[in-house]
Amino acid sequence: MADKKKKKPQKLKARSPRGFVDRSAADIRATDEMIGKIREVYERYGFDPVETPAFEYTDCLGKFLPDTDRPNAGVFSVQDDDEQWMSLRYDLTAPLARHVAENINEITLPYRTYRNGWVFRNEKPGPGRFRQFMQFDADTVGAPGVQADAEMCMMMADTMEALGIARGDYVIRVNNRKVLDGVMEAIGLGDDENAERRLTVLRSTDKLDKFGIEGVRLLLGKGRWEGSKEGEGDFTPGAGLSSVQIETVLDLIKIKDIDEPYSDLLAGVMGVALAESEKLKTGFYELAAIEKIVNGCGYGPDRIKIDTSIVRGLEYYTGPVYEAELLFDVTNEKGEKVQFGSVGGGGRYDGLVKRFTGQDVPATGFSIGVSRLMTALKNLGKLGQDDVLAPVLVTVMDKDTESLGAYQKMVQDLRGAGIRAEMYQGNPKDFSKQMRYADKRGCPIVIIQGNDERQSGKVQLKDMIEGKRQAAAIESNEEYRAARPGQFEIEAGSLVDEVKKLLAAQK
């Protein structure tokens, strides 16, 4: 019986996990540029950096996580060898609360800190929606007054302008969860057993900018289909509120540009019964105080505005909440003109540290979505304009040890003078390959030295930018080879100075 042919092993398919993306050099540099500008503002306000690990014990991440046997709804979780559940952090706020509680005796309160890092969401990815993304947070822990919330809003406004976003192209919108909680009480969802349903209501109202009033009405009721009509696309289950409950919630989020007196607003717009909620009134009075502080500091409604449609979807917020919104239009994936929208937000979370310490430790802070803000800045032409120059390339004509040492010495001399440089590391047999590499790499200058040049103490410099310009006017290959466009000879001893001059001229 003939031997069966052995099957070739299948090649492993290279693929990135769904909802995760690789980052290019340009993206990394643009991010670093943006983070540097944000950091300058935070430092000016007196905030200091801190860093927490990517993993936290799951029970430390907060009550907004579901309590299941395998807690992986919303977060990525693994079980440690001691059978404790750990999860990749969902945001940077809950880990900070754990850090403060763990070090409460060493930390000086109020504790003013900032940090940036990756966060992870075990959610369905989509266009522009990833499972791993970067946030940049600032928080004040241990400050009970709304002046700390007002300062956060002013710092958000200053950050937008430090990034080159003009006044009129952004606004910081402010609301208060006490107002929202008062409404939840009024519609019968104020107790602990309704916590999950209450969160569904809050997350539904948070979709106002995306889906409009009618879309939110559906989410507060039976649910919403993604398609243009019922039965099309994915279905999002709703909060199951009655029509009276839905209209009460919608009455709140329809209110814009609040003016004092708040008691008249509540009685006239929302009804006397709702206006009698002490929690609701406290929330409005805190908003009035924030408005007075920011206006007194010159941050009028063109920069910071009270807006009761702002929700923030996380359960742990307890007081003022705020969002940084960009007001200019962009074209979405469907070719439609839409307002860019939110690039960050936050609020007061007085209960997070208390979960660990049993003591009241007030806190407030905000988070910037780094990737989303970077997209906005690129749309405005405010980021990535100063691209890093590709390295100068030293080509390899001879590969004996002595020649390789000489080429590497050129590279090291250039690097020592602060010039990006590299020696060609591929197969040096085909010189045309080296030139194609330099062209694809975007190298501004190519350095060429064969044995004859080395003997005579010379080096050939090829100006790749000028060479391309000259080459465009040359019709034949013979003429091109004879002309050597953009190429000239210099003394080897003046290499660094000549490269500096040429780079300056190219710039």
CATH topology of the largest domain: BirA Bifunctional Protein, domain 2
Strand order of the largest sheet: 1-5-6-13-12-11-7-10
* Cα separation of the termini: 74 Å
Strand percent estimate: 15-25%
**How many strands in all?**
18
Q: Compute the gyration radius: what is it?
A: 30 Å
Structural class: alpha+beta
CATH architecture verdict of the largest domain: 2-Layer Sandwich
Q: Helix amount, in percent? A: 25-40%
Describe what this molecule looks like in 3D.
The protein has 507 residues and is an alpha+beta fold. It folds into two domains: 25-193 and 249-259 and 274-379, Bira Bifunctional Protein, Domain 2 (BirA Bifunctional Protein, domain 2); 392-506, Anticodon-binding domain (Rossmann fold), CATH 3.40.50. Helices cover 39% and strands 20% of the residues. The chain is built from 18 helices and 18 strands. It has helices spanning 25-44, 93-102, 146-162, 177-186, 195-205, 208-220, 243-253, 262-270, 272-275, 278-296, 354-357, 370-379, 401-416, 431-441, 451-456, 464-471, 477-483, 495-506; strands spanning 48-49, 55-57, 77-79, 85-88, 111-120, 132-141, 170-176, 223-225, 235-237, 304-306, 320-331, 337-348, 363-369, 392-394, 421-423, 445-448, 458-463, 487-491. Strands 1-5-6-13-12-11-7-10 form an eight-stranded mixed β-sheet. Strand 11 and strand 12 form a beta hairpin. The chain is elongated and about 95 Å long. Residues 260-264 and 266-270 have low confidence and may be disordered.
